[in-house]
Amino acid sequence: MLPLPFSRLPLLVLLALLCACSKPSTDNDTADGEEVSPYQNLVFQLDAAVAAEDQLNRWDTTQYVRFEPAVRGKFKWTGERELTFSPLEPFRPTTAFTATLQPQYLPPSQQKSPPALDRTRFHTPYLELREAQAYWGQSRRAAGTAEMRATLRFNYLVQPGEVKPLLRVSQEGQPVAFEITATQPDSTVGVTLTQSVRPGSPLQLEIAPGLRAVGGDQSTQKPLTAQAAVPSQETLLVREAVGVLVEGEPVITVLTSQPVVASEVERLLTVQPAASYSVEALESGFKLKGNFDVDKTYQLGLGTGIRGALGGQLEEAFSQSVSFVDERPSLAFAHGDKAMYLNALGARNLGLRVSEVEKVKVSIAKVYANNIQHLLRSGRQYGYGGGEDDYEGGGEGEEGEYEDRSYNYYDTETLGNVLTERTYTVAGLPKQGGLRLLNLSLKDLEFSGPLKGLYVVRVQDTERQWLQVSKLVAVSDIGLIVKQGLKGRTLVFANSIRSAEPLGGVSVRFVSSNNQVISTGTTNGDGVAVFDSTAATSRFRLSLITAQKDADFTFLNLPQSRVETSRFDVGGLQSNAARYQAFLYGDRDLYRPGDTVRTNTIVRTETWQAPPANLPVKLRLLLPTGKEYASLRQKLSADGAFESRFILPPAIMTGLYTLEVLTGNDVLLASRQISVEEFIPDRLKVTVQATPTVATPGQPVQAQITALNLFGPPADRKFEVEFSLKEKPFKPKNFPNYTFQISSGERRRRSGAGYQEATPISDRFEKTTREGTTDAAGRGTATYEVPDYTDLGTLEGAAFTTVFDESGRPVNRLATFEVQTQSVLFGIQNLPELVSTRQAVTTQLVALTP
């Protein structure tokens, strides 16, 4: 018999083998390694210490790890054995990558036996068909009919032309004919069914293998399938309501089972908390754009009775919470590329929409005046390169390092210079609405310097190198309007953007498309400069106007700023058979049934002379249906004018009416439209009073609400009260030259600079909402606890009250109160704008009670 230790030896060996088999490998089970997001940093763990202390926590362009396909980016040692890689652009979709440690950049002692990486293979998510939805749309082939459409949503951009031959649509096993008309790459592909389908039976959609995402190097290996329910045309359904950030702008998108009319939506749509927005109809739903706060959650509601454009009716009220949570970090300027000019005499703030980013690096570059045209023509440079090692804006330099060409959106390296680079904490930037404000200092812009030009402002996440956004900015108070004539004459009008006053003495340069100055001029007292093309300049095409006055400089690029006039009435005055012109106006544009419409008409000849007295004319009032309702015959006075009036009966049709002025032989001279509408009065009488009217910090304030039905007993109705605070200016009568305004509630130090700047007091105030129901007597109370604010001067509080009647229609009232945070207010006398250097400046202070 074997000794006990030897008898257990086979069991120990078996356990060791099982442990070895169950140990996870360095890569994922798939041949392409683990899956990573295209929008993330990579963290590599090494099995030995590599980085020295002085290498930690700073970005480095040394290519410690080589990727196949090549990826541009930067590295940072976050530990002795931990290396972080941040790409300068997102990883390619549906692409498998390999990572190889470069031993030549390691310490000499580790180059012969380099440590191992924990991740050598990885891939971005493969192409997927996330979902398919079916809805009814207005037919493009037969007007007035409906057709079934479907939407395919992918996780990447795809080419619609590649989807069409691979797609198969069926219902209950029978194929359904379809067409795809889109041509541009998109992650959403629309499919139009060209034959009828049965509501209630789902559609089966299948995409055969072989589809490739835009920018990806692998096509699908398995079929992509999805199912879509077919809705009934008689019922309007809300498919989904989502909040998204479109280039940083918050947008609420509501998808329905058939098109809707924007005016119908506005009538029955509710959004809480209240926000200003506009409704824009979509192919199958609508979207809301407005002043939404990305940090808030909104309750969206649609009342029953709303009808779709194809006859379907919403049978059940819809309500859903919508937020703007973004799955990945984002950076965007508030107005994107729509706005370029920033007033030099204003606040000079750029609005930034920032999501899930803690710190940003802001770079400001100046492109000099003689290079502006080249920059605007070349535009942005971005996107995937033509090959694995062919990436625009970067590549390997000497010693295997990446050349850091950070301006991969606007190439300014050879067109100008970088003026300043600073790092900001996002939480430290002033906030207004849903925006962070980035202030541009005239000193940082070298506004008074001799070299003028256009600015390129770039904002980049300090941790994610690929997350960056750039914007062209022209800082000036000179506004330009250019008018080009057919005979070669060009008029330039220069006005102050701040005051709209004409600017004289502005030096204007006229630059051709091949960057040659073909003429110069100076604006006169009316702010006008003229350029007449001559034989010597006729071979040049005017392309750019630059203007400079003292330190102020601006430009106008004619090809990009030209106004298309086809949508405007620029044909001029048209003559008629009678050779008369008439001007018709009234006391207002909106009337109620039972009102009197009063009008006045002035008639002139084409030479602006009064026509003969007693000339017969007619004034007609047309119904909304186009039929004539009434006609008056009048005679002109010696001044060529006449007055008239129409009495509208109480039972008259409502709608848009037309007034027409005609000569005695029915030649139309002028027309004007008026509206006749019914006005529905409020059904509730609502009063609200805030007590006390003057409060102190920490003291409760009550809003006493009384709601009474105008026709019936007191009302027990739902109410909402929004309490808010804002600064109230203190302007005593006997101290007009003193300011008592508190510039900031707190101070903060700007990153990368040695000075402090103020933040607005209003950033500290938050709105509070109270809800409730009035009692049987129509009374209700909402209580607000004033925060413990101190040393903020006098604050004005508001209790904005909304009471809803039985139909859900709101009735609003406002009550105000004061909050005294100081028993004594301090003021300082205004200082002169210009003072001499090395001279004492006397300041006067005053202390007053509120």
Task: Explain this structure.
- With about 850 residues, this protein is mainly beta.
- It folds into seven domains: about 35-125, Immunoglobulin-like (Sandwich); about 130-230, Immunoglobulin-like, CATH 2.60.40; about 230-325, Immunoglobulin-like (Sandwich), CATH 2.60.40; about 330-390 and about 405-470; about 480-560, Immunoglobulin-like (Sandwich), CATH 2.60.40; about 580-675, Macroglobulin (MG2) domain (Immunoglobulin-like); about 685-825, Immunoglobulin-like, CATH 2.60.40.
- Helices cover about 5% and strands about 45% of the residues.
- It contains six helices and 60 strands.
- It has a five-stranded mixed sheet with strand order 25-32-31-27-28, with no helix packed on it. It has a five-stranded mixed sheet with strand order 41-47-46-43-44, with no helix packed on it. It has a five-stranded mixed sheet with strand order 49-58-57-51-55, with no helix packed on it.
- It is globular, with a radius of gyration of 35 Å.
- The model is unreliable at about 1-30, about 380-410 and about 750-755 (pLDDT under 50).
